[in-house]
Amino acid sequence: MRAVLLAVVVLVCGANGLFLPGAEYGRLKSSAPVTSWFSRLRRQPKPTHRIIDPNEDCFLVTSEEGELFFKAPSDEPSVCGIYMIADPDKRIQVTFNYLDVPCENGGLVAWVDGWELNGQVWPADSWDDDRVVESCDQRPLKKLISRQNAALIQYRVPARGKGFAVTIRHLKKARPCNVMLFGSEGVYTLRNHGETGNCSIIAVAPATVRILDLNVGQSVKRGSLLDVETGTIHYCTKRGIPDYVDVGGANGLDNTKMEIVDNVCGLDSYEGRRPWYIACEDTMVRLVSSGKYHNSVTLAFAPLPLEEIEHSDLICGMNDV
Ligand SMILES: *[C@@H]1O[C@H](CO)[C@@H](O)[C@H](O)[C@H]1NC(C)=O
Per-residue pLDDT averaged across 76-87, rounded? Predict the structure, then answer.
């Protein structure tokens, strides 16, 4: 099981910039598991104005709104990131109040509509070029708004005294589809709102996942007279059922590389199901919808107990070796 634990540590240490290539995140000294940078965050006070300390905050995760300032302490070309996360029903708006980052020597500030870690992006299954806006010399004039509750500012400022200031706001988002969980604990309902396509939830940590309520592939959009409790149907894809829920995880943020432990569908309001134990860097659930049904699945996430790792239902990366 050592491999799993090591993988978690590597996720935190080896955060290379994809959009700002060629440099490791500077001065990253943390070797604690992923869950610890979420817990570290909770202990922080609630400053609405904050100056980024280049020695401490190169890999900064924040769930706060407010203003952030960065001023480069040296000419060193380190790549750093501000990983922003909000409540599941919010999206993130960033305004650059000023930006004084010369383009020389690779100076760059990038807005990323999503997260990037170790060269993998989230949400990878709905990625496009519009998700990245790069700037130097001139600040982006428009407000940058994410499509989901997580976004990232990556920056490399190899010019002493230069820097930028941003204001982060959390805006209400109707009908959230892709959601990142803050930490590995929480209850969330994924819905398709009657639409075609995939919606997903990710916890950036190993976790247990339990379905509290399931209504997938059952409630026809029009003319449904009564819904019959089918119970939870397993391996729905093998049975050719078009609407289902994939449960699994991946070593990395890329949800197209998700390893699947089970897929379920049906109508089941019984809460007492056994959870899946997912020993992966990231725990993922994906709701796949044909558009014929109103689907919803309510999920409870909890941290994976360390002593359960070897009894996990899924250990990611085992097929690679
Ligand atoms: C939705 O997920 C399924 C299962 O992984 C995949 O086959 C399909 O291509 C995805 N659809 C979209 C629109 O990404």
Answer: 95
